[in-house]
Amino acid sequence: MIKIKTREEIELMRESALVVSKTLGMLAKEVKPGVSTLYLDKLAEEFIREQGAIPGFLGLYDFPNTLCMSPNAQVVHGIPNKTLLKEGDIISIDCGALKNGFYGDHAYTFAVGEIDAEIKKLLEVTKESVYVGIREFKAGNRVGDVGYAIQKFTEDHGYGVVRELVGHGLGREMHEDPEMPNYGKRGRGKKFVEGMVVAIEPMTNLGTQKIRQHADGWTITTFDNKPSAHFEHDVAIVNGKPELLSTFKYVNEALGIVTDVEDEFRQ
């Protein structure tokens, strides 16, 4: 069942989302060659707690850490460890926080130093595909409209769209209805209405769309071992239109990126 949020609840969810956004901004300054994902995980846990929030992933479904850290061919749900990042890697950092009784859930894929042009384009297209999908998240549209937009944009660039992993509703639970696939057909699926809040999170592979799950029960990699990118935003429907609750502002500031792409999703 889809749980509709009041304006007051949406503002509380914005606070939760901003904790995650600020955490990713802090981590953006720390992602560099020679740093372990476990070190970044500990930084994130401390930072989230300093913001008066609780790490949203830690212990959720028995997940052992604060962050999902997925380098290179790992798609999502990678477990932080002592392996050091190296020049040319990419690393998806998926972060959650619980504050005011509501979850924020937000992800960004970072370049570690200089990366190949082919992989840089994968990151750029995947990040843009989030906004392509968000534009379709408005009252009267349906789940399939978002999925179709993301799928077409991504596949037009020659990339594989993961099928088994999807976005989701968000609120007092980390995963609520509706599921938000990154593929689909226009006009299909549940209809969007005022007060819905979802996490839109394309997972895009450089090669095949196929994936495999590892023996740890968490880590998922691409079937052909080619790189994968993952970006995620939390979005509400306010006045019939998509309203961003999360932001890449803090990441952009840390990385020196100048963009106004989020302005169209602010009211």
Description:
The protein is α+β, with helices and mostly antiparallel strands and 267 residues long. The protein has a single domain (7-265), classed as Alpha-Beta Complex (Creatine Amidinohydrolase), CATH 3.90.230.10. It has five helices and 15 strands. It has a five-stranded antiparallel β-sheet with strand order 8-7-9-14-15. A hairpin with a 6-residue loop joins strand 11 and strand 12. Helix 1 (7-28) packs across helix 2, helix 1 (7-28) runs parallel beside helix 5 (249-255) and helix 3 (117-134) runs antiparallel to helix 4 (143-156). It is globular. The two termini are 27 Å apart.
Residues in helices, as a percent range: 25-40%
CATH topology: Creatine Amidinohydrolase
Shape: globular
**Total number of distinct structural domains:** 1
Query: Please, what is the CATH homologous superfamily?
Result: Creatinase/methionine aminopeptidase superfamily
What is the total tally of β strands? Answer: 15
Please state how the strands of the largest beta sheet are arranged side by side: 8-7-9-14-15
Going by CATH, the architecture would be: Alpha-Beta Complex
DSSP helix count? 5
Query: Roughly how many Å is the radius of gyration?
Result: 17 Å
Main beta sheet: 5 strands, antiparallel
CATH class reads: Alpha Beta
Describe the oligomeric state of these chains in a short phrase.
Answer: single chain
- Tell me the β content: 15-25%
